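User: I'll paste a sequence; please echo it back and then give the predicted structure.

Assistant: Echoing your sequence first, then the prediction.
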Amino acid sequence: MSEQEAKTPESTRRTFIKAAGAVTATALAGAGAFSILARRRPNVVFIISDALRADRLGAANPLGGSLTPFLDEAARKGAVFTNCLAPSSWTLPSVAGMVSSRNPVVTGEYYTESYAAGAPTFAAELARAGYFTFSVVKNPWLPARRADRELMKSIVTKGFSRYELGSVRLDDNPFHAEGIGAPREVRAFDPPERVTDEAAEIFQKLRAGGDRRPFLLYLHYMNTHQPYTPSPAHTALADAAAPPVEAVPDHLIYQVLAARGRERDYALPIPTEELPMLRRAEALYNAATFSVDAAVARLVERIDDAGELENTIFIFTSDHGEEFGERGHCGHSITLYQECIHVPFVMWGAGVPAGFSSDRLLRGIDFAPGIVKLALGTREADFAGGTFFRSSGGGEHTEAIACTVSPILPRMLDTVTLSIVESTGRKFIMRRPAAGKEGPTSVELYDLRTDPYEQRNLAGVASTERFEVRMRRYWEAAAARPAAERLTVDRETEEALRSLGYLN
């Protein structure tokens, strides 16, 4: 353990005290509002841990304590929204919705600039206001690549002065395999502490060069994504929860689980012989969560060391969640159940009210206008979503929309699934054939207040007509959009997507 890692627990407690806002949760509760103290334009750090489901924050660590000790402290010293829903159950449409405040209710347009053509993004708005905007994104398919290997013009990069797209290196990566569908399939991502240091070096060089502009950093960790790769120092957490599976290396467990799930069409119950693999996969995922938490603490320390902490706001969330056998499936992108769209949301730092907690509906499309208002005090851009703020006069969002498609490549599209979650707790899901395809349409209705795990489908005993009317409205709006540029990827990229479970 490095000196910097060793000092984190105590020093971060001091850090929070130094950076926390002076407004109390009690003072805010009466108005039902969320507000930020007046201050000079802050730095904004927007952090995504890919595929991290909401219930991992504060979950038990098998060696004692919490999986997320740093983020738990951040939630206590800052603000937490416990009912935050992502726009999709996989990365590309979800992040597109987050950065542009547009619902990705469309079959393919989220790949390119034709998705939400001309839409503002929070990075573009902050850049226009004089911010230095940069990213360190370790998802190598965000944005996607064309068959000629060129990055596609994408809404997710719009507004960034510097967009660092991670590539998964094999030279020092022990987690790769040969002969499973492709000659060399990638199986791991950079350790999260390396990702933190890469981001820290960028803003340190900025300041060393005399640039005093406020900065926006978008940081995207991949360790909680399949194949679930914690830092080497934290694999003991996984071992304590579930031992390695004989004859199935950790970096192949997800691949085997995905193949077995497809073979049985995800039928439940999970076969007994798959359970050790499923438990091990979840143990690795939990250990990776702990690693990301430590990496975020490391980032705060680096920003504190640079003298930037007292004027920096941090936002931590995820682009979607992950399933571990709840529907007979391990992974994400196929369904829109809560384990795949309910994500964590914690905010702390300059002027953020201490101890603020809310269970009101927060949507991924609210992130862009919320970030702009946090940074600039206004939201002049044409964003579709709301913000984190609510006045005593109301303004609560009434519903959250999510969508996913299967499979994820538009030229192969078979089905489209949409969900509506109301602030009342009612949830409606409709799965239907894609345009030009044939097949059944299915509907599901749940009451999340009494059935949070979505076990009792009420569609057979309660009317779904009002939901279906709204669904048709969304589909009609999507159909009226200009035709999107269709994504065509090369074989290498397609195999990489298949290796991570996105394609059968």
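The first strand starts at residue 43 and ends at 49. The chain has one domain: 3-243+281-394.
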